[in-house]
Design a protein that fits this description.
Blueprint lengths: L8 H13 L5 H8 L3 H13 L3 E4 L2 E4 L6 H5 L3 H14 L5 E4 L3 H10 L5 E5 L2 H7 L5 E5 L3 E3 L4 E3 L1 H7 L6 E4 L3 E3 L3 E4 L2 H11 L4 E5 L12 E3 L6 E4 L4 H4 L1 H6 L2 E3 L5 E2 L11
Parallel strand pairs: 3-4, 3-8, 4-5, 8-11, 11-13, 13-14
Antiparallel strand pairs: 1-2, 6-7, 9-10, 10-12, 14-15
Length: 271
């Protein structure tokens, strides 16, 4: 009986980087997963670190590619993302049930919702939990599951099971990229499945993305946008990029007072 050949060094390192991006960063765990010695994993991680793909940590590594930590990513296009979060917060009425996905813009949205009254916020985002914990006007419901690093999203079958029991008024989804005809680009298959369940959980669905994320596909996993939704984005370059999405659900331009491709939006509500 012949055994399956092990992948070559280049293929193994590509798969190793994917494993780190999916949250597997321990040397012992990675060595068992790939069937090689810990010293081989250390050499592979050193090579990936030298190329700037990961940062070595004690006993493992963290990804530094497109799927960086939320604090680092939140600094990119900060003004645009802040305006998108404020626009999204203006859509929420007091007393509603809101479902927040994990992401940098949804984390900013949570910050704008924190001082509201009578809201129920359901989330799988550690960032949103930090922003909302301790505010008496918010009934915070945390979806339980496995914490994925470094994106700080809680994922897994338990999250999907809990979503079947929730019917929020509004769902706000984050993304690493948005491509017409494909949907939301996600860093892992697990996250794409959870986002799809969130998309279909609520009465109204919104995608929060700044102009730099439109038309981008940094990962190979997708959440199809197979229901009516609205895109909330910023004005910069949006005249070129938004037209495919106007057909499927409408575009809300942060800082504007009207909807392109959908119904009118007349400023803040519920404040």
């Amino acid at each position: 009986m012949t055994s399956q050949p092990r992948p070559g060094t280049r293929d193994r390192r590509a798969m190793l980087l994917e494993a780190v991006r999916d949250g597997s960063g321990g040397i012992t765990q990675l060595a068992e997963e790939f069937g090689v010695s810990e010293s081989t994993i250390r050499r592979d991680l050193a090579s990936l670190a030298g190329a700037g793909h990961v940062v070595r940590t004690y006993g493992g590594a963290l990804d530094t590619g497109p799927d960086r930590g939320p604090q680092e990513k939140d600094q990119e296009h900060a003004a645009a993302r802040d305006s998108i979060a404020r626009e999204a917060a203006a859509l929420v009425r007091d007393g509603e049930v809101v479902l927040l996905d994990a992401g940098t813009i949804t984390g900013r949205l949570a910050r704008y919702l924190a001082h509201r009254e009578g809201l129920t916020v359901v989330t799988n985002s550690v960032t949103a939990i930090r922003e909302l914990a301790g505010f008496p006007g918010i009934d915070l419901i945390v979806l339980g599951g496995r914490l994925r690093h470094p994106g700080e999203a809680i994922l897994g079958e338990s999250v999907l099971a809990q979503l079947r029991h929730i019917s929020p008024d509004r769902v706000f989804l984050g993304t690493d990229g948005l491509v017409s005809g494909r949907g939301l680009c996600c860093p892992s298959l697990e996250q794409s499945v959870v986002r799809h369940a969130m998309l279909h959980a609520g009465a109204e669905a919104y995608v929060l993305a700044d102009h730099s994320q439109l038309g981008q596909a940094p990962f190979p996993y997708w959440t199809p946008l197979d229901r009516e939704f609205r895109l909330v984005t910023d004005r910069t370059k949006v005249d070129i990029q938004y037209s495919p999405f106007a057909e499927s659900g409408g575009v809300l331009l942060a800082g504007e007072t009207e909807t392109v491709g959908g119904g009118a939006h007349h400023g803040p509500r519920g404040s």
